[in-house]
Amino acid sequence: MRRRGRGAPAVGRGSTIHIAMATHQPMTSAAGVNGDTKTVETYHEDAVHDAQLDFYGSKLATCSSDRTIKVFDVQNGEAVGAGETLVGHEGPVWQVAWAHPSFGTILASASYDGKVFIWKNEGTNTGAYGAAGGWTRIKEHALHTASVNAIAWAPHELGATLACASSDGRVSVLTFNEDGSWSVDLVTAHPGGCNAVSWMPTSAKETSPDAPLTRRFATGGCDSVVKVWEFSEEHNRYVEVDQLTNHKDWVRDVAFAPSLGLPRTYLATASQDRTVLVWTQNEAQGPWTCTPLMPGTKAEDRSKFADTVWRVSWSISGNVLAVSCGDGKVSLWKENLKGAWECISDLDA
């Protein structure tokens, strides 16, 4: 069984992470622009790889190479207590993802052990399968044969649907059905391994109230390619609809921007080639336009960041892009009226 993981970076130093107070977002995401942050002690025993706040900003989930997940209550920007510990993974946990609250208090976790766990909090004092504080593991997804590097919940209008990207080159789309069963769609996405996945907002491509919702997501892989996939009703499976090939090394992250109610779609991609590209599409099935961020000072190398770019994340409003690099720096970017992207803040993670 291949276990090649993403080699995910730490999001903080040691067992601590930082939350930006302007929007209560972890500093791996597009936080407030003023850099006002608070430090959170996670009590993990190894590097912390991801930190995610839930829909309301009232719970913080973290995951670590110590094979555990921590869940904290958040009050006034402060994580309360030592948190609840969820165990069961047999390798580093790379990523956590909260489902929309309409499905309950649901958290998914992805690990180097090739498994995805889905946890539910019932609000009781006891849990099951190594959980605490009422957390119960309701699903163990063990279809992949290598590290699961990234997970992403689909827009809630599409139901409780989770995409899982793996080093085995495949993406599995796990859907909870009304009868209580789970169904899986498999996509062979990137032969060398898949590092990232992101869903397109459902409203970004809808042309009329009666139009069917578009199920579309993007993936990034070790083949240096970004691919866009859409569910085909005709073929009853996900099919590749676009391939974006401007990166020169592994694609480490992909992120669709939240919809602003405009017809244009934004997709940010980050790569080991030290570049971030912002792709825009003005209409469904239309061409993608690529604009690189320009962080450098040398004319011949302006598109290069100082280190590998590991994460890109949009603000809730979709107008600020956070870029997280291997040197521990987080920069915030915003598009100006001329369509160019400007750095508006630099933060130390």
Automatic annotation (TrEMBL):
Component of the coat protein complex II (COPII) which promotes the formation of transport vesicles from the endoplasmic reticulum (ER). The coat has two main functions, the physical deformation of the endoplasmic reticulum membrane into vesicles and the selection of cargo molecules. It also functions as a component of the nuclear pore complex (NPC). NPC components, collectively referred to as nucleoporins (NUPs), can play the role of both NPC structural components and of docking or interaction partners for transiently associated nuclear transport factors. PANTHER family: NUCLEAR PORE COMPLEX PROTEIN SEC13 / SEH1 FAMILY MEMBER, PROTEIN SEC13 HOMOLOG. This is Wd40 repeat-like protein. Belongs to the WD repeat SEC13 family. GO terms for biological process: COPII-coated vesicle budding; mRNA transport; positive regulation of TOR signaling; protein exit from endoplasmic reticulum; protein import into nucleus. Keywords: Cytoplasmic vesicle, Endoplasmic reticulum, ER-Golgi transport, Membrane, mRNA transport, Nuclear pore complex, Nucleus, Protein transport, Repeat, Translocation, Transport, WD repeat. Gene3D superfamilies: YVTN repeat-like/Quinoprotein amine dehydrogenase. It comes from the Eukaryota. It comes from Malassezia pachydermatis. The lineage of its organism: Eukaryota, Fungi, Dikarya, Basidiomycota, Ustilaginomycotina. It is a peripheral membrane protein. It is found in: Cytoplasmic vesicle, COPII-coated vesicle membrane; Endoplasmic reticulum membrane; Nucleus, Nuclear pore complex. The keyword Secreted does not apply. One of its GO terms (molecular function) is structural molecule activity. WD repeats lie at residues 41-82, 86-120, 244-279. InterPro entries: Sec13/Seh1_fam, WD40/YVTN_repeat-like_dom_sf, WD40_repeat_dom_sf, WD40_rpt. The keyword Nucleus applies. Its main location: membrane. One of its GO terms (cellular component) is COPII vesicle coat.
